[in-house]
Design brief:
5-stranded mixed barrel, 2 domains
Amino acid sequence: MLRFLLTPRWIGLFIVVVVLGIVCVRLSHWQFGRYHERSVSNTTTRTNLAAPPVAIDRLMQVGAEPGDSVQYRKVIVKGHYDPHHQIVVLYRSRNGAPGVEVVVPLVTSAGTAVLVDRGWVPAAANGNTVPKVPAPPTGPVSVVGRVRIDSTDGGNVVTPVQGQVRAVSAAAIKQSLPYPAYDGFLELVRESPHPADAPSRPQAPSLSGGPSFFYGWQWLFFAGLFFAFYCYFAWSEYNQQRQPKAPSETNAPPPPVTVND
């Protein structure tokens, strides 16, 4: 009945549909896997954000970067800011506006520093210029911040150049400091005393699941669509073959001859 499906043309089309379907299913599994990883990460982040602050030495240390499991946990640390070793992170946009992030070492009474991202300051052009940055508080300061692991710029560890970087990496920045520093850094939540003029606080992380869940279903839809098109065209050709063929003009009987008396 459907012997035409065993012709080379239809066998080739079937193979193409199967290959495309397998590719779509694998891409779907990959997107669902990313969604699952993001969901697990969001659960950990949500728990860490809700946890009360603890002493910095419980989560951070010198010579060992904090793990993913403690990212966004809040710690409390006391010391004094060192504005002479302030770092400006370029190209940091917020709500579409160009700007920079301001990172200042906070030196504890033990002589160990922690890098504190104090927040965002708008900048001219595309964020590659350094604007006037509000000075940190002087004297003893109490800081509550979220623990962050080092960032990179395109996979490369960034080293400060004239007090400017593209991403915050304590491993690279602390090499230019005259005192030891914790690995990782802090995103400022609050500081006391609070200065009259300060950068905009670092934003809390987004806890959305992202588009991976919908992309996963989209790839499954594409796989089904390829198979549906294959079935449609096969059914269409089958119906065409079932239609009776009209006689051709060459096989048609000759017209009757009319004899005039």
